[in-house]
Amino acid sequence: MSDVEVPESHPRYESLLTRHRIEAGVEKGITSQQGLIAQGRGEAFDYLLGERTIDSAEAAERAAAAHLLLADHPVLSINGNVAALVPGEVVELAAATGADLEVNLFNRTEQRIQAIAKHLREHGAESVKGLAADERIPGLDHERAKVDADGIYDADVVVVPLEDGDRAQALGEMDKTEIVIDLNPLSRSAQAATVPIIDNVIRAIPNMTAHARQLRAHDDEQLRAIVADFDTEVTLAAAEQAIRSGDSE
Amino acid sequence: MSDVEVPESHPRYESLLTRHRIEAGVEKGITSQQGLIAQGRGEAFDYLLGERTIDSAEAAERAAAAHLLLADHPVLSINGNVAALVPGEVVELAAATGADLEVNLFNRTEQRIQAIAKHLREHGAESVKGLAADERIPGLDHERAKVDADGIYDADVVVVPLEDGDRAQALGEMDKTEIVIDLNPLSRSAQAATVPIIDNVIRAIPNMTAHARQLRAHDDEQLRAIVADFDTEVTLAAAEQAIRSGDSE
After folding, report:
1. How far is CA A80 from the centre of its chain?
2. Chain B residues with CB-CB distance to A under 8 A?
3. Residue B2 pLDDT more than 80?
4. Statement: residue B12 has pLDDT above 80
5. B53 near B204, Cβ under 8 Å?
6. Looking at residue A162, what is its pLDDT?
7. What sign does the dihedral A81-B12-A178-A213 (CA atoms) show?
8. Do B196 and B177 form a contact (C-beta atoms < 8 A)?
């Protein structure tokens, strides 16, 4: 939080922090025009959700942490909005779970890739993938399919926060365990996920890190029990109910 | 529609048209960074509303048209997103109701004011107010309070599409009849309105024009009956219900 001078006690702290980081993202060439519109869509869904982590999302964040700890090769996919909003937080999650960070953009330009990689390194990332782009996700057009052969292409568990629906579906068809963070439970991305997390990335990523740190004391059998307990359909239905009704679950 | 080459038969016609116009708005310096985020918030609410004009919004558009025809001095307040999304449509509504067009920005810069006025003139506006800025709305800080003495300040009926909550409230306190177009029925702008229209401006403005043309055959007594029939609370409740339930009213 050292890059922001908003007191945590401020009633609109989270909202002001988000605004500040998105503006900085635009200045640094990290956040795109489409990213700003997507940010607005997220704000509206979060508003209806009550700007809080609902119980079903908390359970999804715990299951996601268990998946990451069980994975052979977990990768966190980072786009412009994720880099702008939670750069230090994704670095911490990667460290807590042994995951790679890979920059992956819907509107890919070499300049934005480099700006995002630099931003992540400034926030403590030792290694950032996504620059080689030497493999393709099947079923997507050339530019949007680009991934690293030793990154997302090889991953068994991949976290895709704020992902485009086409790519979320194509990744799901590669038989990866896909963890999606998206505030719209009806989106194709959320629907394609093994673990859909219907929460703001600002809250979801630190929560996943906290769960991962707590679950590290567990053995694989206990982690597999947490994963087996997770119900995708129930999670999506609970989130939709929370958004529609405006009530707690 | 001459500026866009999207066939009207396309299933995503409205969405593609919107995207095209917003992008053009950014290129022309009309749409701000905050405008892009606001556009995204609107998209999310419209998505939940089913991207259609619900019956209660249609009734509000008719009541708004009656208010405009009864007005001594109606004014349409135009911000960056409205100018980008419906430039020709607001010119048509102004012509159909004898209203003035006044550029009014939350983040006011001389450059954006001029770009928007030019854009409106390119879409057929003969006169555009908002450049004099020689009066103030009471209760707002200096920059955000600026209006034209012979425009919004003098108006008895004002249409504020996509208005900031603070300014919508301050205008309401000036005893004007305030017609707000906003996709969030819980927003302070919608709550402050005499006539809240919970609809996409892309649909609302042409609908208001169609109603105004049809209502021009009515006398003042008939128009006053339409205005008297309109119920603000019922309208807001119906829209919230439509968004929450995902069903028709």
Report:
1. 11
2. 22-23, 26, 33, 36-45, 47-48, 184, 243-246
3. no
4. no
5. yes
6. 86
7. positive
8. no
